[in-house]
Amino acid sequence: MILSLPFWSKETDMSTPAASAYQPFEILAREDYSPVTYMLEVHHPQMARAAQPGQFVIVMSHATGERVPLTIADFDREKGTITLVIQAVGKTTMEMQQTCQVGTVLHGMAGPMGIPSHLSGAKKVICVGGGLGVAPVYPQARAWKESGAYVIGVLGFRSNDLVFWEDKFRAICDELIICTDDGSAGIHGFVTDGIKQAMEQHSDIKEVVAIGPPVMMKASANATRAAGIKTMVSLNPIMVDGTGMCGGCRVKVGETVKFACVDGPDFDGHQVDFDDLIIRLKRYKEEERVATERWTASCRMNEPSLATA
Length: 309
Hints:
Elements: H1 17-21, E1 25-32, E2 37-43, H2 45-50, E3 56-60, E4 68-71, E5 74-76, E6 81-87, H3 91-99, E7 105-106, E8 108-113, E9 124-130, H4 134-146, E10 150-157, H5 166-172, E11 175-180, E12 187-188, H6 191-201, E13 207-211, H7 214-225, E14 230-234, E15 250-253, E16 256-259, H8 260-263, E17 266-268, H9 274-281, H10 285-301, H11 304-308
Parallel strand pairs: 9-10, 9-13, 10-11, 11-12, 13-14
Antiparallel strand pairs: 1-2, 1-7, 2-6, 3-4, 3-8, 5-6, 14-17, 15-16
């Protein structure tokens, strides 16, 4: 079920019955985890009731903004909120980092989209998150715990100052392994080192869920392949409409082509063609660079001192 309410803007006639019944997507809370990573808690009771682990939303920060797909990092049915964790890596996410503050609203938010993550009934699982992927793997780890499974969390960061949500994971995981590239927290190594450590200590692991950069998910799938442990990954290809019509999010899974927005985003990591996915993700790098540079230059020109000059 996709919940897409009418877009609200300053030009909307709020005196009409339909408009007066509509509530904008207000940002109730924000937290910055690093210079480029930030969390937004958005008020949307209907979506909070409908959301399931593994699903995503498409967000527009303003009326002429880009439509950005973002995985749901958390949802609170009682508070009526959806949590998004975003990394400022391009023009739109950098713009949102500046403009999306507590008390402001998002122009539009459609979803929940995608097929919810399937819980296979496994009794012992590893939930792996790398970098920004730590956020979307959280609702899956919580769902596994609520189903009665023994949950081992493996979280990877570049360094200790980038670690976030450790307390949230410790509250739902039976074991938690933190990995850092520089060894400043937890074990010195990558998430694959954490996966191997968990596999050595537990011979009865039945499933692994891994979310993060494609290279990290590929390495995680390779780490479990020889042991034959089912490994699910959440893919993030280029996406435009989120309905399967544009074909931009197609991925190769085994001998078939799938669309991540409607067939996923979860797929069998042992079947995904990660090399093809990585190539596709680089397709619009030049356009993204130009758009970011143009927006950055525009922001500088809008600064009082430069505008006066």
